[in-house]
Design goal:
The chain is mainly alpha-helical. Helix content is 77%, strand content 0%. Helix 2 runs antiparallel to helix 3, helix 2 runs antiparallel to helix 5 and helix 6 runs antiparallel to helix 7. The two termini are 20 Å apart.
């Protein structure tokens, strides 16, 4: 694959990551790795994306400091650590084809989840359900940086106000991604080539975050999520087709 072909997938993936962190609480975060995995191997895509995600977490959180929901985070973080540990233990057992199919299935599954999601009355925080879904999020986040869907399944039924919802998700993934740096380094994921790719793509992040903050106040969320789901569905189906 030529450099121009790689950038065709990489640039929108990085921009959408910043956009998601800037204003939409992870709604677009699941698109990035499937898009990048169409250009390079799924394992390399995950390795290249982690430093970029950490940068996007730090830049994107500035507008939401102090607005997160502490009660939810106390439930979510222990679950995330369980999932990360499971991902670390099983990472060497998952081959490139399986990881690619997993990424595609997560993306498609998220879209299908959105189709059946209904606007019920707000539900209270459920600790057991929260730990379970956060554990799944920690695992899928470790393997494919696709922890958004399980966390959205946990938070959306509570119908938190928009600011608290985005702030809670952003802080959760800032801490989760920071923890993931340790096992990723231990597993040899941060090769010179991968770090160079991360460094090359990193300058796109602030532009995406700024665009997310700008759009957060101006675009109708219902339509934005519909467009996001279409993009995720296309990327997911392409990954499944590529790795079958």
């Amino acid at each position: 694959m030529t450099l121009s072909e790689f950038l065709l997938f990489a640039l929108p993936a990085i921009f959408l990551t910043g956009l998601s962190k800037g204003g939409f609480g992870g709604a677009l975060g699941g698109i990035a790795v499937p898009l990048l995995a169409l250009a390079i191997s799924p394992k390399q895509a995950a390795a290249v994306m982690l430093p970029i995600l950490c940068l996007a977490d730090v830049v994107g959180l500035r507008a939401y400091i102090g607005h997160w929901d502490k009660a939810n985070l106390k439930v979510m973080m222990p679950g995330a650590l369980i999932g990360i540990a499971l991902g670390t233990l099983t990472f060497g057992m998952l081959d490139e084809r399986l990881i690619g199919l997993l990424m595609g299935a997560i993306a498609v599954g998220f879209v299908l989840l959105g189709l059946v999601n209904r606007n019920d009355k707000p539900r209270p925080l459920q600790r057991g359900r929260g730990v379970m879904l956060s554990s799944i999020a920690g695992f899928t986040s470790f393997v494919a940086h696709a922890g958004g869907p399980p966390i959205m399944m946990h938070l959306l039924p509570q119908q938190l106000d928009k600011l608290r919802y985005v702030a809670t998700i952003n802080l959760f993934f800032l801490m989760t991604n920071a923890v993931k740096l340790i096992p990723y380094a231990a597993l040899g994921q941060f090769s010179r080539e991968n770090l160079l790719l991360s460094l090359t793509l990193a300058p796109i992040v602030p532009f995406g975050v700024w665009a997310g903050l700008w759009l957060h106040k101006r675009i109708d969320h219902a339509w934005f999520y519909r467009i996001a789901r279409i993009g995720m569905l296309v990327a997911g189906l392409q990954l499944i087709h590529k790795h079958l």
